[in-house]
Amino acid sequence: MARLEAEHAARPLDLILITGDMTDAGRSGEWAEFFDILAGHPDLADRILVLPGNHDVNVVDRANPARLDLPFSPAKTLRKMRALSAMAAFGADRLRVMSASGAEPGLTLAATLAPQRQAIEAFADQGGFRLSNQLARLWDELFPLILPPAGEDGLGVAILNSNADTNFSFTNALGMIPVGQARKLTAAFDQYPKARWIVALHHHLIEYPMPVAKFSERIGTALVNGSWFQRVLKPYAERVLVMHGHRHVDWIGACGKLKIVSAPSPVMKPDSKPTHFYIHALGADPNGRLALMRPTRIDLAAAEKSAHD
């Protein structure tokens, strides 16, 4: 975050996108640490958007990987409410919820959550199956969250929840885009037919070819219905950029006309190489198609050494 703030001071950023896994297991203490870190960088707060990762909502207990999480477990809903609080903290007044008909972005996230605030607070304090079921339905109905384009030909952002509802550790990394969420997404595209879009989700659409040694790395964790979702996006591909995390694979490319950015982890070190992230620049070509410029790579080890020097 300190390195990002330095970049922002030199060249102002428009959007900071955190594509999930802000925590390791969705614990309250982990979220508190996340908020403490970001509180130290208020200049960046208005530009941050976050979305839920599988570690935020699906990991039950890192100390006991075999522990089951039953479908009706209030603990599952509690993790979702913690993730929702993070999304609201950084985008409540900017993000909009698609209307029930899916025809257009309607109320802001803040206005949508206002009538539910008492129920969320009561659930956080007391738990209970009734409130858990009520808030689980709220969670499912919120997505996609839409940051509308500033003008008819501007740039919009669609925040998706790609986490499949899973119940035990072997499946907690799986992803899926529900049909209803996809329909609302394309409705937002149709509402702004000249706009360009960032489609932000946690899971990768396809498995990236790469050599692996461990059995765990050979288990696919892409969207279960990724091929179908690519077909959903295909009619809009020239004005859409998909940005995701989850796989920790550093890859920027295209699937047909659909541009895809897979973010590396800026904090995990799977090998001896320094961690890094990218600053991307977007534009429009003369035909109105979304253009992805050459990104700026920020190597954190080099940044830390420079700061110490």
Describe the structure.
With 309 residues, this protein is α/β, with parallel strands linked by helices. It has one domain: Purple Acid Phosphatase, chain A, domain 2 (4-Layer Sandwich), CATH 3.60.21. Helices cover 34% and strands 18% of the residues. The protein has helices at 2-10, 28-39, 42-45, 54-57, 74-91, 109-113, 117-126, 129-142, 179-191, 226-233, 300-308, and strands at 16-18, 48-50, 96-98, 105-108, 145-147, 155-159, 196-200, 240-244, 251-255, 258-262, 276-279, 282-284, 290-292, 296-299. Strands 4-3-5-6-7-8-10-9 form an 8-stranded mixed β-sheet. It has a two-stranded parallel sheet with strand order 1-2. A two-stranded antiparallel ribbon has the order 11-14. Helix 5 packs across helix 8. The longest helix has 18 residues, at 74-91.
Descriptive labels:
14 strands, eight-stranded mixed beta sheet, 11 helices, Purple Acid Phosphatase, chain A, domain 2, two-stranded parallel sheet, alpha/beta, 309 residues
CATH topology: Purple Acid Phosphatase, chain A, domain 2
Strand content: 15-25%
Query: Radius of gyration from the CA trace?
Result: 19 Å
Strand numbers in spatial order across the main sheet: 4-3-5-6-7-8-10-9
pLDDT < 50 stretches: none
Indicate the structural class.
alpha/beta
Q: How far from one another are the termini? A: 19 Å
- The CATH architecture is 4-Layer Sandwich
Annotated CATH homologous superfamily: Metallo-dependent phosphatases
Provide mean pLDDT, rounded: 90
Order of helices and strands: HEHHEHHEEHHHEEHEHEEEEEEEH
The largest sheet is: 8 strands, mixed
Helical content, roughly?
25-40%
Shape: globular
Helices, by number, come to 11
The total of beta strands comes to 14
